[in-house]
Amino acid sequence: MSEPTRIVVVIVALSLGGILLAAGGSHLRQWYRISTSEVQAVRDAAQERGVAEFEGTVRPIEGETFHAPFTGTEAVASSYTVRAPSTGEGKYRTVTSGTVARPFLVADETGCVEVDPSGGDIEPANSERRLTVGENDTLPDDVRLRLSNTSDELDLDTILAAETDERRYYWEGTVTAGDEVHVYGATTADRTPSSRSATAVLTKADAADLFRITVGDEGDASRSKLVEGLVLLGLGLMLFGPGVGWALTFI
């Protein structure tokens, strides 16, 4: 390997490694905040002017549900990922991903609030491969219809552009009525709820670097962040460590 090529490799390894290490550190900080903060009752969260963390049962708001594009499940939120085969057996690359979400209610024995999920990370518990489309095939008509009904909230052009001469895999997870959810990073919004059942609207808090809605409880939410952080740190070290070693050879 020529010296200019080695220099480029070192720069790339250090840069990518540094980015992954920083991202991993951010996820671990978020894990720490979630795992050490106190879950509030919904009634208390409704009065919170800072960063709220609460749990409860999802209830739909009339007229605010939709049919998830790839399964047709009636939902208040869904996440999707389109993947295609990559080099190596059993490996995939992500073509596109995103979320579709509507306002919904979260209730416990103390009260009920409306959650505006705008700007939040949605973490369903049932994300899995739902649909496989073969080479030179197109998405089924019912899927294309549901995609068109939610076109303002997803990357429709990229999803349809994925219909190429390669196999595609469509993953989807949903948040539906009756799901137990954990919400972190919300604050009370200065507006009237659209449902009479709710006492307040909670939305993303400006003071929080994380607004996350997880199907499950605090343990599920914190565990997800811990795993993500450790994976990113591991990948970062795999690049940054050798990058430092190679850089030292120039000294």
From TrEMBL:
Domain of life (superkingdom): Archaea
Transmembrane segments: 6-25, 230-248
The keyword Membrane appears for this protein: yes
Keywords carried by this UniProt record: Membrane, Transmembrane, Transmembrane helix
Protein name as it appears in the record: RING-type E3 ubiquitin transferase
